[in-house]
């Protein structure tokens, strides 16, 4: 049974919180349950105290996440429930919400929800995990559509004005040559140039020999967005000719996930978020994979907070660079590239010869394409 429409004084009491009880009167049992459910969620807002009086003197709620899910489904109408569940995941990061099958079946797929699923998939029973996998697939499909276009555009090759192409596509259009070749068709009276033969440039191939791309992905909990986009990026690179892509996830241990790179959904469902961080150990693993240093790139996606040996990490990066391997450190790899990282360690890696920055996946694709020119 859902909550009945409160009386005006009860409504003000729900808005203002416990501090207004002396003026508005006590809530009845059902309204009090609704108040507790709202407080459980919106009481987490750190800025709320600056905007209103609600919450003054309130004790912490004893509701658990499952209790809260059950209570809102008995207290509020459907549209309110959906808003509360969305706010729980996207505003306050209450990942446990997504372990409920009914929530997963209703909530709109988003990257926020995907992050929550990756945090809580170990808590899901097989039925919930099946629903979660479908949600992961939908979000990955959306990211893949955008990122695959960016990657293919970056790796499509440089335009070569010296050679003409019969492939008549807009990205190859040579404006200057077209104007020069058709100047005799300029009509002074109408101030128009009539083009009979448009000119298109050919594209030079970027890769005469295969390149080995090794993505080292920090899978600590704070790096979840980077894990998501790294998995999709690896799948996009996997499909490109002349590229051998490996994807390695690490915390204090190293897990080679290359066998799942072609299926980013399966890959993400294998990732175990959390734990410590031993970046040097991951770099050592990458060193063991390299057979042709001058045709290899190691991409380290991490916040650079090293839990292992900082000396060993710097030493190994320096050795990679000295041997001809290109090392790129990424402080962020999501659509926003909002970086939070150990700048001191990043600086030491730069001094060792690495290039460190915060990039979106599209920017990474452009950077790789630029660096891997034959």
Automatic annotation (TrEMBL):
Residue ranges occupied by any VWFA domain in the UniProt entry: 210-369
InterPro entries for the chain: LolB, Uncharacterised_CoxE, VWF_A, vWFA_dom_sf
Protein name: VWFA domain-containing protein
Species per Swiss-Prot/TrEMBL record: Massilia aurea
């Amino acid at each position: 049974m859902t909550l009945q429409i409160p009386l005006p004084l009860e409504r003000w009491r729900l808005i203002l919180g416990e501090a207004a009880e002396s003026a508005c009167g006590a809530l009845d049992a059902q309204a009090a349950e609704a108040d507790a459910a709202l407080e459980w969620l919106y009481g987490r807002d750190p800025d709320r105290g600056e905007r209103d009086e609600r919450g003054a003197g309130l004790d912490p709620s004893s509701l658990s996440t499952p209790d809260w899910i059950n209570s809102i489904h008995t207290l509020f109408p459907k549209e309110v429930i959906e808003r509360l569940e969305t706010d729980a995941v996207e505003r306050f990061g209450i990942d446990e919400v997504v372990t409920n099958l009914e929530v997963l079946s209703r909530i709109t797929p988003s990257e926020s929800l995907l992050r929550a699923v990756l945090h809580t998939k170990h808590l899901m029973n097989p039925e919930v995990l099946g629903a979660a996998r479908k949600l992961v697939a939908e979000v990955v499909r959306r990211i893949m559509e955008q990122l695959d276009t960016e990657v293919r555009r970056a790796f499509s090759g440089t335009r070569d004005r010296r050679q003409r192409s019969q492939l008549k596509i807009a990205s190859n259009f040579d404006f200057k040559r077209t104007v020069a070749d058709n100047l005799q068709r300029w009509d002074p009276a109408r101030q128009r140039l009539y083009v009979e033969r448009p000119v298109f440039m050919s594209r030079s191939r970027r890769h005469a020999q295969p390149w080995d791309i090794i993505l080292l992905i920090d899978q600590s909990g704070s790096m979840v967005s980077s894990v998501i986009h790294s998995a999709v990026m690896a799948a996009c690179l996997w499909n490109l000719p002349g590229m051998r892509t490996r994807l390695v996830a690490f915390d204090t241990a190293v897990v080679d996930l290359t066998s799942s790179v072609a299926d980013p959904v399966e890959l993400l469902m294998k990732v175990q978020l959390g734990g410590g961080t031993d970046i040097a150990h991951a770099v050592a693993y990458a060193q063991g994979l390299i057979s042709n240093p001058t045709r290899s790139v190691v991409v380290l996606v991490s916040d650079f907070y090293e839990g292992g040996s900082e000396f060993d990490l710097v030493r190994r990066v320096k050795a990679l660079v000295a041997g001809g391997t290109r090392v790129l450190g990424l402080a962020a790899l999501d659509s926003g590239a909002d970086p939070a990282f150990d700048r001191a360690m990043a600086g030491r890696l730069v001094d060792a010869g690495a290039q460190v920055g915060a990039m979106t996946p599209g920017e990474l694709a452009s950077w790789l394409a630029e660096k891997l020119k034959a």
